[in-house]
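Notebook, p. 212. Picked up where the previous page left off. The plan for this session was modest: take the two constructs that came back from the sequencing core last week, fold each one, and keep the raw output in the notebook itself so nobody has to go hunting through shared drives later. Recording the first one now, exactly as returned: residue sequence, then the structure token string.
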Amino acid sequence: MAVEHTDDARLSEGDRNEWTLQDEDARRYVHRAVDATVGLVESTFGPRGMEKLVVTEDLQNRPEEIRLDDAGRLLEAIERGEGFTHPIAALFVDSVADMYGGLHDGTTTAVLLAGALLDEGFELVERGVAPSSVVVGYAIARSQAGEVLDDLARPIEPEDHAAIANVAATTMTTELDPAVRERLADHVATAIGELAAVRDDGWINTDDAKVLASRGVDPAIHDGLVLARPEDADPTGRELEEPIEDARVAILDSEINLEETASVIDDVQLSSAEGTNRYTSELAAHIESIAEGLRARGVDVMVCQDALDESVARPLEQAGIVVVDKAKYPKEDVHRLARATGGAVVSNVADLSDDRLGRAGRVTQRHVGESVWTAFEDCPGPVRTLTTGGETAAETTRREQALEDAIETAGTAAIDGQVLPGAGASAMAVATAVRESARSVEGHERLALVAFADALERLPRTLARNAGHDPITAVTSLRNAHTGEGRSEAGVDPATGMPMDAVVAGVLEPRRVFSQAIETAAAAVERLLTVDAVLYPNVRLQGYTPRPENK
């Protein structure tokens, strides 16, 4: 995604091949790049945010057009295309990218807050405040924010189904039918509770909660793993028409190589028809012996990550073993299956000892769209599969992404055991406290604390504006709700723009997400606010588009 504009900053040229931007011009160059990046994601913020149509490339480098309403996925999609070629924009995006990669939430908050902090900081610098004083003031405010959030945070347990479901629903800010959102959030809470119950160290492995989506599929949760494979899987064409009960499962991450396992054919010479016939018969006999041996040990299902040749698959199925091949998208599914069934993934069929076989209480199969879904359910291991779908491909993708993000966010809340009120409540609570504490700070740092509070208030202001309400009225009302004794949990009601109790409304977010958004934004601004010169020898920098919307 290449977007450009002509920057009107003056160039101080030592010669034709080198140039430098200094002081005000350098700050303008930095500011415009960040401002333009903020403009890309600003309208996506909150439950009433807008979508972006991004022309980019998929993971196989094929052109694709996707609709996104999440800053993390939006920035990731741009990077898959032509990326951010402007050096300041690239640096800024890189500074906040870990929010999505690590937490799957909070990226938009971090970007908007960083943009607001930079706006306020540069304004102070233009008024004569030293950048170092702004950085120190922001550091004081960050410390104050931590204390406020300590008081504001509420405890949460993995088995608190309703609270975990509220965290999941809050994360799913994408446009979803309320009934669908509630059902998906309920499944997320169930999965998180069950994954937490199998461990006593407080850790939840969210990789053990898989999301699988296809058009027309109703939301459901499976106690085990559902493998999705291409429609041409199962080389013999044999359908698994009846469920397999109490199945023993063998799992391979590579094809069955007969020539490596059949030592009896080492001496066969293929220089004659007789030798060729002997070679073929020895191979057939060998695979039959493998099939009979596996069946004798009770193997019911053979799962292979790679495709199996019909000459290999047919003897297995004739021996009564169901073949499930091409289980390679995603590749980690065979390892999830091993954790679910209590088995082990092996690379050589000769290594399939009894203790490496897994178990599934029930194995079923069905065709879904252009895929074959094989479900391994009632498994002993801690793996759950959440399935969903919509009437259209876009709606299906929207639900799939919402589920993936909700699992990570709900898992974070359950692991940390702390949540905060959402809807801008935490931002306003911190802003109110920082503004109050600024009265006791001397010097220019006091101005920086006030600027930090002003920047935080832009978050509820953007929520209100994106919901179609007057942002000034909304922020003024919310500020009044946070005055007085104690910490208020009031946030912006997207339906009215007026204050609401975010906890009572069930709008909850993990403490770590908002705390990390503040730290990420402040760290990014500290890197950029202290830039007083841009030196770029031998290359003439291209520009970057101004904000396209909502200034």
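Okay, moving on. Second construct, recorded in the same format:
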Amino acid sequence: MAITLDVQFYCFLFFTWLASTLLVRSLAKKSLKSKRVFQYPPSPRALPIIGHLHLLSSVLPKSFQTLALRHGPLMRLSLGKSTAIVVSNSTTAKEFLKTHEMNFVSRPAFGASDFDIYKDSKFVNAEYGAYWRFMKKVCMTELLAGTTLIRFTDIRKEEMVKLLNILSRCSEDGRDCDVGREIMTMTNNVICRMAMSTRCSRNADEGKEIWGLVKGILDVAPKFSLGEMLGPLVKYDLFGYGRELTSLMMKFDRMVEGIMMEHEKEREIGGEKESKDMMDILLEIHVDENSEVKLSRDDIKSFLMEMFMAGTETISVAMQWTLAEIVNHPDVFKKVREEINEVVGSNRLVQESDVPNLPYLQAVVKESLRLHAPAPLIFRKCKEDCKINGYDITSNERIIFNVYAIMRDPEAWGNDAHAFVPDRFLASSMDDGDQQQMVGFMGGREYSFLPFGSGRRGCPGASLASVVMHAAIGALVQCFDFKVKGGEKLDLIEGPGLSSGMAHPLLCYPITHVNPLKLTTVSG
């Protein structure tokens, strides 16, 4: 009996000692952490309450670029009640996106997420985990795979021809055309038909209404995110942005739910379709009991919404900038047309299959993407405390990569970094080392050229954007000259918003050079 009591006593002493030791160590760590002096990246002088908001304009990338010229390529800004680290050159970006990639592989949530009916179904801004990895795999192997894009070639060709015919009619009538708006309609038609077999081809069409809702969401979301910078008051939705966002998303939800039900009914009646759109593929995963991840209906709707946002908006904006740049540079316009005439000839329309044989056209698109990135700001979130370039980056800190500044950095691109010079992307103008660096630029593996992001979080739709842009820009140059309405050159000023579109409409008089109706659309 005495031995048993002694064992119990010593066990009690041991566990008391262990608990005390762990408690002391924990308190010591907290004490050391509280005394730790963080070496944050440099910051401009801040004002009380608003921090650095007074230094920012509506065109955020340009504001960040101006501040970086004074305070360096890695700086910390106070944006009201939140802070952010801004990265403005390729060397520093590489530290985040390659050396410490897994620590910055997730994206931050913004205040609008509180009013987002799909906030638990997001793919683009999802935490890096099983759901995100599964959706990325589905994108790369099914939804946006090379074979899928080939299957939709005729859709893209039909919509491109429709755009050319609209411009041709404007030319015949001698009237001006908002070319940017027509490009936006074409891109939306392509995305709608690829996603769920609908288009903007008649009055009150579903595709047109869907884009109107998505455009409304794109317009209100940045306002809401800016409101978030003022702190917890954002949850009270004082300006009504939250209610507006929820209302638009509910309308989108009802419309897409109806289209989903139509797809499901077609499947019940006729079995599997030979030519599947993206919704068909997602619905198959939805009902597959053996699927690695079970997709909900909200997951599907959320993905389609993000597809419209990332597809229609960014591709059309990138195309508008490209056309505007070459209209303002007649020598570039002439070289693109001469290359097309030499490779394609004058009897048929330029096709996607021609693009690999049109290196100057490719260079023009790349140079436009360099100067006018579809997503000029890339957002990431720090997972754990770390040091970058000797500075402390703390967990949950938001990181903003100013792609606009990175791709205009003279240290990476030379003294003419702000000029539109497509020849810089031609192999003939590079030495061997530069040619090696250029390989893989479109995939973001070189950190001075990031139009579609980088690494695991790079845009899965980059291939789609590439095929749409090259063929459409090539066809526009092949078929038309463009006279600028109200002047000799277009005003290339960036507008507000996260996609940094043109501040002014792309208004031109299209003048027919080759009638698109007389060109065959059969690939050569």
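Notes on construct two before I forget. The mean pLDDT is 86.
Flagging for discussion at group meeting.
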